[in-house]
Hints:
alpha+beta, Jelly Rolls, 2 domains, five-stranded antiparallel β-sheet, 4 helices, disordered N terminus
Amino acid sequence: xxxxxxxxxxxxxxxxxxxxxxxxxxxxxxxxxxxxxxxxxxxxxxxxxxxxxxxxxxxxxxxxxxxxxxxxxxxxxxxxxxxxxxxxxxxxxxxxxxxxxxxxxxxxxxxxxxxxxxxxxxxxxxxxxxxxxxxxxxxxxxxxxxxxxxxxxxxxxxxxxxxxxxxxxxxxxxxxxxxxxxxxxxxxxxxxxxxxxxxxxxxxxxxxx
Length: 209
């Protein structure tokens, strides 16, 4: 009987220790792979749990004619440690989110209006999964896989995106290759592009070398 009571006491103690309602990010602290440290609870306010930026249309007057408005932990401290985040995706006609990956999260995209052609590529057999989505459609992009979104329509498109991480990470393939100082000859060797193509893309995206 004593053993049972002792075990029950340990369970209650462990549950109490783990039962923390939230850990609002202290954005002035250092971010680690496990997230930010917690803001003092006495300094937490309702503003930490509300984000209004997704109601504002993004500026799509750029080279990709697209805008992503993130509601990640850096903009929305209340998400810290909760394993979730969101973003707004605006695509003008002809807009594109180039091939990219989120190393830390799976993505779930919901089309609010317009049409969005989206796809991802599997890592095992390089199989392409492609679909044109309409209002009300949802598509999932598995964690770490290259994927993209394009608006081939004549009207703007809007999607709301959710991630199973407060900080999903982002790497856009084109920018990784052509928007830095990686020497052109190395880019050519690893992509099978010729020198003229590489130099042109570096010029467009601001790379050098």
